[in-house]
Every structure is written in structure tokens, then in C-alpha cells.
Amino acid sequence: MNLDELKQKMDNLKIKIGIEESNRKNNLEKLKKYGIKSINHAENAIDEFYSQIEKLQILEKKVLDDANKMMDDIENGR
How many domains, the chain? Predict the structure, then answer.
């Protein structure tokens, strides 16, 4: 590889890094519109969202189990 090719590869790499940094800043600006101030804040919000979904699934299962028990009690005359 000669010096010109190496310079071209370095320039291409700088362009790619610049594009990635620009994309990151644009994504962060989009997140800020929703009150999210950082990527870490976004990740925490997503974790909390999934945690709430898990809690709702547990509650749903409990309600269904209770409903099934009530139906069994009704069928068995209790």
C-alpha cells in the first residue's frame, strides 16, 4: 500500500467517524424531544418499560388463575 492509498483510507475513516458522530447527535436530539436526555436515560427508560410489561404479565396470569379458580368453585358448588 502506498502513501496515497493510506491517506485515502484515513480520509474515508474520518468521514465514516464523522457520519457516525452526526447520526449519534441527531438520534440524541430526537430522543430529547421525548424528554430523554441521554442514551443512558433512554436505556433506563426502555428497561423500566420492559419491567412494567413483566409486572403486567404477572398480574394478568394471577387474574386468569383467580378467574379459573372462581369458575372451578362455581362448577363444584362452593
Answer: 2
The whole domain housing 60 covers 38-78
Taking the whole predicted model, whether its pTM rises above 0.85 is answered as: no
SS3 state of residue 76: coil
Q: Which residue from 43, 54, 60 is spatially nearest to 68, judged by alpha carbons?
A: 60
Q: How crowded is residue 32: how many other Cβ atoms within 10 Å of its Cβ?
A: 12
Residue 21 cell numbers, joined? 458522530
Tell me the pLDDT of the chain (78 aa) as tens digits: 678 888 888 888 888 888 888 888 888 787 778 777 777 877 888 888 899 999 999 999 899 888 888 888 888 886
